[in-house]
């Protein structure tokens, strides 16, 4: 026979099984589920509206680029890079933080300054400039991907830029609207993907509007030579195709423990999304697909 303690301990279960209690519990769960569905629907609607607004602003920018006068691929992508750089300012302040996460706000601010409706260029930084430039290039029909490079000897200080697929060669080429540069091989003088060529610093050369060389300093005082420190780990992201993977060069300190918010561990432990499809030795693997041998 069950003792009193056992009966008392199971009383909640008996109550739960009563029809009225079960109905109330089910009703409560349905209400919670309803609120969750409304929240997710509203969030999705806001996201769609933001994307629609951003795309609209991008379409307004394209005629301002006057690309018909420069039909060559390199001339076109350089014009887009210079437009992004000319009509924004690298500045991380309250204005920037207020717009962070809202690409439409950055696009609207850039368009306003380009049209001389605003006296102050929109405040952005490397990732927001790169993402907006990528949107413009995709609207022009070019394929892009975002690349982040990390200094493994710090707590993963990083820099972001984008790469665009050259439709004539089917090769990736780097464009950096934050430093206002592209990259080429010093030996061949051909434009290159920094993500694919990061191992060989001696053959890399940044190029700006009037020439090439590591002595380049952007109009905002950013020295290209600083980027040598970041060529340890290369993260590649193509959100449109759900592609995320990373490569490391021989300079990377792979055993270093990093801290990011509540996470602590190696690069792929604190940056798990960046290693979603793997973490590869750049000397053995290409940047053209996760795990593709060179």
**Percent helix among the residues?**
25-40%
Total separate domains: 2
Uncertain segments are none
- SSE string, helices as H and strands as E: HHHHEHHEHEEEEHEEEEEEHE
- The Cα radius of gyration reads 25 Å
Number of helices: 9
Characterise this structure.
- It is globular, with a radius of gyration of 25 Å.
- The chain has helices spanning 4-9, 11-16, 19-64, 73-86, 94-99, 103-114, 126-139, 194-197, 267-270; strands spanning 88-90, 122-124, 144-151, 157-166, 171-176, 181-185, 204-208, 211-212, 233-238, 243-248, 258-260, 263-265, 279-281.
- The longest helix has 46 residues, at 19-64.
- The chain folds into two domains: 26-129, no CATH class; 143-294, no CATH class.
- A hairpin with a 4-residue loop joins strand 5 and strand 6 (181-185).
- Helices cover 38% and strands 21% of the residues.
- Strands 8-7-6-5-4-3-9-10-13 form a nine-stranded mixed sheet.
- The chain contains nine helices and 13 strands.
- With 294 residues, it is α+β, with helices and mostly antiparallel strands.
Brief synopsis:
The chain has 294 residues and is of the alpha+beta class. It has helices at residues 4-9, 11-16, 19-64, 73-86, 94-99, 103-114, 126-139, 194-197, 267-270; strands spanning 88-90, 122-124, 144-151, 157-166, 171-176, 181-185, 204-208, 211-212, 233-238, 243-248, 258-260, 263-265, 279-281.
